[in-house]
Amino acid sequence: MKVSYLPAAPAFDPFSECKYVSAGNSVMLMSADHRNRIARIRKIDSDRYTVISSGEVKEFEHWENRADGKNSLRKSVQKLRDLINANCTESENLLWLTLTYAENMTDVKRLYRDWDKFWKRMKYHLKSESVDIPEYIDVIEPQARGAWHHHVFLIWNHKAPFIPNDKVSSIWNHGFCKTKSVSSVDNIGAYFSAYLCNLPVEECENYSSESVVEAEVPEDGKKVTKKFVKGARLDLYPKGVRFYRTSRGIKNPDIEYMPLCDAEKRVDGLEPQYRTAFLLTDEDSSLSITVVKTYYNKRRIGNRLKGGDTV
After folding, report:
1. Which of 13, 17, 232, 242 has the highest count of CB atoms within 10 angstroms of its CB?
2. Which residues lie below 8 Å from residue 147, measured CB to CB, with a gap of 6+?
3. How many CB atoms are located within 10 Å of the residue 57 CB?
């Protein structure tokens, strides 16, 4: 499936079907000029498939690394963004921990084992302090030098307790820990998903100037502007790595399908914060679908989309 981004968003029939995704304070409307409800291929085995219209047998592309499947990885990052937004609605109920290794640790299996041990020790500490056990979202992130570290969102249904950073470091016991503030971020999922996809320019060796973007990020309780290479971190994820885990109590976003006009009524009074339009083309069948995604933030009233209608 080929993806081609469009310079402007087309208008759709107001009664066409729309996907309405509500995740905390974030709302996404996804519309398409039509939906593909017909199977175009039939799977033969893990390596081959048949193009139904022609009977031609083709081979699936097996990615050597996640860089070859960026579109698939981006979809996973989008699911993670919605999970974060659906659960991290109140910054005062949240702790964001970054757990790093003292050495250049590149073993993914050890990464999972170390997380399991950390979480057991953390629960023991919280119980000893008579503190409720929170829900969690644990995300692993690769660095340009090959090392991994954890980003952990601990989520309570009340104000988060104070846990000294040195205490968290001792519970982690593999290197360093940093607790970040998210009080200045009103769309944590969007900020964090961009963080997962992009690399700071100082960590990249080869990149084009067209791929550099500027973004405001929270640092020591303030917002600072930094330069990033868009999508560069996706090249570092190996194939088959499950890059996030959640506790059982994590809520999924609410997803509904309805006419576009009904979806737009639900966001009446909100201005779109971000819009993207793209063309999906199936090279086997020549089928093409135009898709438009529009994002809204319930905490931003009257703040119009800046810089045009596409990003």
Report:
1. 232
2. 100, 101, 103, 104, 105, 106
3. 11
Distance spanning both ends of the chain, measured CA to CA: 21
Distance, in Å, from the CA atom of 70 to the CA atom of 142, rounded to the nearest integer, reads 15
Q: Could you tell me the two tokens for 267?
A: 């966001």
Taking the C-alpha atoms of residue 260 and residue 249, their distance in angstroms, rounded to an integer, is: 31
User: Tokens standing for 188?
Assistant: 């944590």
For the chain, percent of residues with pLDDT exceeding 70:
86
Rounded to whole angstroms, the Cα distance separating 275 from 8 reads 9
pLDDT confidence tier of residue 211, bands split at 50, 70 and 90 = confident
Beta strand 148-155 with 212-219: parallel, antiparallel or unpaired? unpaired
Q: Give the gyration radius of the chain's Cα atoms.
A: 21
Main-chain phi, psi angles of 162, to 5 degrees: -85, 125
**Closest Cα to residue 160, out of 91, 71, 104, 228?**
91
At 104, list the tokens: 């250049």
- Do β-strands 135-142 and 212-219 pair in parallel, antiparallel, or remain unpaired? unpaired
What is the average per-residue pLDDT within 114-135?
Answer: 97
Give the residue from 194, 196, 197, 160 showing the smallest Cα distance to 274: 194
Question: Tens digit of pLDDT for each residue in 157-166?
Answer: 999 999 999 9
Q: List pLDDT tens digits, range 102-113.
A: 999 999 899 999
The whole-angstrom separation of Cα 154 and Cα 267 is 30
**Cα–Cα distances in angstroms (integers) from residue 124 to residues 94, 97, 103, 130, 133, in the given order:** 19, 17, 26, 10, 9
Amino acid letter, 224? V
CA 231 to chain centre: 12
